[in-house]
Predict the structure.
Amino acid sequence: MSFDISKHKEAEYIIPLVIEEKERYYLDLINLQQNYTGKADVMFSNEFFREANKLIINAIVLFEKGFIDCSFYSLRQAMEIATTTVYFSDDEEVNRQKEFAKWKKMERFPMYNQMIGELEKRKNVFADIKEQMSAYFTSIEETKQKLNKYVHKQGYDTFYVSRSRITPNDLAKWKITITSEFKYFLDITIGSIAVFRIAVDPFPILLADEAIYKRTGRFITEGYYIDFIEKYIGKENVDAYKRTILYKSHYDYFIDNEEMNEVVLDVVKNEFIDKTKIDKIILQMHLLGQDEIAAVSLMSLSEKIVKVYCNHGLRYYFCNIQSKRKSHNWSSSDFDRFSNSEQAYNFSYDESNISCIKIGEEKYFIEHNDVLNPLEIEELEMLVLRLNKMCEIV
């Protein structure tokens, strides 16, 4: 058996490590990534936060492989890319485009501390957040400085070659110490990304408040889980964030809205209609949009109706009655066929059926388990007339 010099040199001085809570970290990172912003002028920031998220995952992978300094560098990169996002988003549009162009062309661009300094000078959203959450930003800065010690190889403890000379007992202690330190840095990094994200808009924190959640429509932002907030940001720091102008202005705007009951909330947030509780939905029908009103009205028409599709099938409302259709897949060509046909009712759709109607400018595709009879079609047409009159009034 020949000696593999490549494998030997690559593995030399490398000590693999284990993060026991890795799966939990990955689940938390999914929650972080799901909090996209829907703010039109800064949608680009979603790509930056996705990159920061990936850099954190890279750090975990590198750490477990034994590449300690590389893993710490990846954490530092995650902090820096999140800072760059806020540097762009917390600026006037004209200057933002100017700085963005420099960044894209890889021209001279401010470093982390320079960006933080500029953000403070602008006295805008970030400056207010940093002032209110000063203790938290101090911990971020301290962590970044400690990461730099490893990245810049300061001290023999950061050398790979030094670990070859320690005893097995000391090696075991080192593994415990370095893993604990990495997890601390990891927690602070994830928390810092979460905080930089709420410098773009406050919805990840707003939607974690049940009172606000029940007074808002559906957003692409999911909201941070309560345990995520407690672990990575902390209650005291969140309370400090809630004193910012950004948070208070949004909170005051939404808190005056009428609170939705549970079944209406299901319609709005989850596109689910409980047919056994239509009466409760009707009580707050005024809180629903056109698609929601159409879906609820159509669902209440017949027990045969199980789904209502809109946006040419891209969105649909479902209910507590299971569809007979076994497949969960669909094709836009199906809806093209339904939409362009002279036939409006009772298309065969695998084990189910589809009927097509138009309310206002929107076409709706009704999935029903059994064929609609002439009386049901007549009732459907009367309902469509009423809904179209409502659209005219609006």
The radius of gyration is 27 Å. The chain has 19 helices and six strands.
